[in-house]
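User: quick one, sequence for these tokens?
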């Protein structure tokens, strides 16, 4: 599954700036870069290279940002595409929520 998020940003940015910012928040874990700290640790990841659905299948991240598809239009409109394994990501977040509520 995939999602495309677009947002207007008051400050002008370039495509390399946005891509570098997303990549900087992650650390390498094989071919997928995982957000290494903060509230999105284990929830968001970044992928920098060509991918196939087999690389996404079985990943528990709710969002894997496809870095090559990050676009900036007129310096203020930023578009970010992300992918996820619907079953694995949902069941992982559900289990995390149940654990938090129970204890």
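Assistant:
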């Amino acid at each position: 599954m995939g999602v495309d998020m677009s947002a207007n940003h008051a400050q002008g940015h370039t495509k390399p700036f946005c891509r570098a910012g997303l990549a900087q928040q992650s650390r390498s874990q094989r071919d997928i870069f995982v957000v290494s700290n903060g509230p999105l640790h284990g929830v968001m990841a970044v992928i920098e290279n060509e991918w196939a659905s087999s690389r996404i299948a079985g990943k528990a991240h709710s969002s894997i940002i496809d870095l090559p598809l990050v676009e900036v239009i007129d310096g203020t409109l930023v578009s970010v595409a992300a992918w996820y394994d619907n079953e694995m990501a949902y069941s992982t977040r559900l289990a995390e929520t149940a654990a938090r509520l129970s204890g």
